[in-house]
Design a protein that fits this description.
The protein has helices at 29-39, 41-53, 108-123, 176-187, 198-206, 251-268, 282-287, 309-316; strands spanning 10-12, 18-21, 62-67, 70-84, 87-99, 127-130, 143-147, 151-154, 167-170, 192-195, 215-222, 225-233, 241-243, 245-248, 273-275, 292-294, 298-302, 324-325. With 335 residues, it is of the alpha+beta class. Pfam families: Acetyltransf_9.
Amino acid sequence: MLHPRPHPVRRELQGGMVLRTLEAEAELSGPCAVNAAVHGPEVGALLRSLALHHPDMDPRDVIWVEDQGEVVSTVCGIPWGLYLSGVQLSALELGLVATLERWRGRGFQRAMVGFFRERIQERGAHLSIIQGIPGFYRQFGYTYVLPLEGGLILEHRQLPATEHGLRVRKATPGDIPALAALHQGLTRELELHATRSEEVWSYLLEHAVETGTEGEFWVCERADAAAGYMFFPKHHFGDELVVSEAVATGTDTALAMLSHAVALSRERGTPGVRLSLHDGSTISQLARAGGTRHGPLRVAGVVPRHTEAPRRAAASAHRPTARVGMGRPHWRDCV
């Protein structure tokens, strides 16, 4: 979010170019336009939404290079909270990486990544993560660590409509306490998962419309109490209806949510449902008998040299087949 005193950065680069960070809301138009041109309008909108509404954003996390006032290249530091083997970690995602085509190949990204590394240390973050072009970010010290998408694909015929007696409806901001409690309770069994404050929940439900993280949260109720929820992202790979996050407190809840997902898929004309969830979830276990696996993408991560916390956490993870829940970014963790 924009602070009253953002302490903006301005650094001269070679060739008269300038590296800058955000100072005022009016300056967002340039970085947003670059991301919209490179990635699509929803990503430009995402940058604006993050900068103005995400509770953990700092204006200095919005970074760009400009030429005589024209923004030509951007990166953005997106904050995460992570939990690894009993250790609470903070992470900064290198995201919204974009350079206008005629300005590529001039080293702007390398200059901004150098400043981004400074931001990692200023924030006291334990590690950085990225979701991007396979292989490209190895030059900046990143390596592949976790599967990102993929999952089980269900065709409509594999899960006929069933009577379950539970109510499934779209979530509202009034559901945030219940959603947060479900999320926290179910992530305790995971070796690695993202943490999420109620303020971040509010951001997701109220400020993600028309952005790259837009989607629908649906709540499953048993006797007027929330028994589970699921999230359908609007933007994803593939043509299926994707479930990128789901929590079910019982088999009946999982069946009700699967049935609802298939019904939505039929209604919206998609070829099936893809469960981009971890293999140990109740919903994945129920669906596995009839589903087929889709090849995963990858998320890359790097541990900065200045901290030993992630290494200590990794050393304490003694289960060889530990389950993880991260999911699609920037904000989703599959449960």
